[in-house]
From TrEMBL:
V-ATPase is a heteromultimeric enzyme made up of two complexes: the ATP-hydrolytic V1 complex and the proton translocation V0 complex. It comes from Gossypium schwendimanii. Belongs to the V-ATPase H subunit family. Subunit of the V1 complex of vacuolar(H+)-ATPase (V-ATPase), a multisubunit enzyme composed of a peripheral complex (V1) that hydrolyzes ATP and a membrane integral complex (V0) that translocates protons. V-ATPase is responsible for acidifying and maintaining the pH of intracellular compartments. Subunit of the peripheral V1 complex of vacuolar ATPase. Subunit H activates the ATPase activity of the enzyme and couples ATPase activity to proton flow. Vacuolar ATPase is responsible for acidifying a variety of intracellular compartments in eukaryotic cells, thus providing most of the energy required for transport processes in the vacuolar system. GO terms for cellular component: vacuolar proton-transporting V-type ATPase, V1 domain. Residues 292-404 form the ATPase V1 complex subunit H C-terminal domain. This is V-type proton ATPase subunit H.
Length: 437
């Protein structure tokens, strides 16, 4: 008061508030919230002693922890004049972290010289989200700008209006580069809060649409595969559970090997019951997706279009066991197309898959070898044993082995892909029927 840094009213308010019980402070804020906000902001504007600034920032953080987003306190704080706050906030790392420790506390961090024109809570939140996105693009502090912004978003994105503003600001893409396996405690915390943001966005359809076209899912799979931190694994698995039934996410998860990762995670000793429940739910959902992916109609469409790739159905024994009789439809149309692909395609992946599928048919159909021989497939498969691609050569050899030896004996010849195997294949292919049978 002597130096006119605080008014008599401000001093009285502080004396009533300082060192009081939480319940007393809550009542004071209910009665005079905007007045207390103004006092705190005035102190931050006019007093530069670091210890005082840190203490007042802690008081603000404590106040805002229980503050509803629509409260008059929050709007008053955002609308307050903060002439020198930006300089103070970047003065030390602790000040910046304390200022934005809570999501709603982020409203203090703008530090512009003019008063805010927006007076509604939606205006407040929109401007805050835009500022946070700016921090993610070009942080004002080299080490704590991005962690601070992510920390704020991890709390703010609980609000639907914030999710909408964040997507409109094209903020989702700013999270993707931060989804990467972490090792240090600081990077683990940043990773956790980033994944927490993605989990919150997985409840919002427009955000899901963006995530579907980004590299978010492969990155999340990499994180959950390598992370040992339970809270990180938990939030990523919960995100998978939310996305599983959306669009093509289920199919992508299967392609990325998530079923095997889930099995590995289930074998570990987790203490979080929500995580265990989510893993069980995810496992069941992935099994359903594998069944859908393994339908013969989908397989038939893939073959007829000539777009062969290592989708899950090709190596799923259940698919071949349950659908092998379907290959008899239309005078073995699908088999004939597979054999045509072997002769005409220039794509090594398609050739390898075609050879593998033909060997699977031979193995699972009671008359597989006879049918494939009748369709004149031997010569076409043999030509592929000279292919430049090791993948094609390996699967052509497998097909030849099953074509002439059957599953029982061919299994002994599949240990490697070296020249010895190829020589065996040639030897088998040139033996007479009497020698073979």
């Amino acid at each position: 008061m002597t130096t006119k840094l605080i008014s008599g009213t401000g001093l009285q308010l502080l004396r009533r508030y300082d060192n009081r019980a939480e319940s007393v402070r809550a009542q004071l804020l209910d009665d005079d919230g905007p007045a207390y906000v103004q006092v705190f902001v005035n102190i931050l504007r006019d007093i530069f002693k670091e210890e005082t600034v840190e203490y007042v920032l802690a008081l603000i953080d404590e106040m805002l922890t229980g503050c509803d987003l629509s409260s008059k306190v929050l709007v008053t704080m955002w609308s307050a004049d903060m002439v020198a706050l930006e300089r103070q906030l970047v003065h030390t790392r602790k000040e910046l972290q304390d200022t934005c420790l809570d999501s709603k506390d982020g409203v203090v961090a703008n530090g512009e010289n003019s008063k805010k024109k927006g007076t509604t809570i939606n205006d407040v939140l929109k401007e805050l989200v835009e500022w946070l996105c700016t921090q993610l693009k070009k942080p004002s502090h080299p080490t704590c700008g991005i962690p601070t912004a992510i920390n704020c978003l991890a709390s703010l994105l609980k609000e639907p209006v914030v999710r909408s503003s964040f997507v409109q600001a094209d903020g989702v893409k700013l999270l993707i580069p931060l989804i990467t396996p972490a090792s240090t405690q600081q990077s683990i915390q940043l990773l956790y809060e980033t994944c927490l943001c993605v989990w919150l966005l997985s409840y919002y359809e427009p955000a899901i649409e963006y995530l579907a076209t980004s590299r978010a899912l492969p990155r999340l799979v990499d994180v959950v595969r390598s992370s040992t931190k339970e809270k990180v694994v938990r939030v990523v698995v919960l995100t998978f559970r939310n996305l599983l039934s959306k669009g093509t996410f289920g199919a992508q998860m299967v392609d990325l090997g998530l079923p095997q990762i889930v099995q590995s995670l289930k074998a570990q000793a987790w203490s979080d019951e929500d995580l265990l429940e989510a893993l069980n739910h995810l496992e069941d959902g992935l099994k359903d997706n594998i069944k859908k992916l393994s339908s013969f109609d989908k397989y038939k469409q893939e073959v007829l279009l000539g777009h062969l790739d290592w989708s899950p159905m090709h190596k799923d024994p259940l698919f071949w066991r349950d659908n092998v009789s379907c290959f008899e439809e239309n005078d073995f149309q699908v088999l004939r197309v597979l054999i045509t692909i072997m002769e005409t395609s220039s794509d090594p992946r398609a050739l390898a898959v075609a050879c593998f599928d033909l060997s699977q048919f031979i193995q699972h159909h009671p008359a597989g070898r006879v049918i494939v021989n009748d369709l004149k497939a031997k010569e076409r498969v043999m030509k592929l044993m000279n292919h430049d691609s090791a993948e094609v050569t390996k699967n052509a050899l497998l097909c030849i082995q099953r074509l002439f030896l059957g599953a029982k004996y061919a299994s002994f010849l599949q240990a490697s892909v070296g020249m010895a195997d190829i020589s065996i294949g040639y030897f088998i292919a040139n033996m007479s029927k009497e020698e073979l049978f």
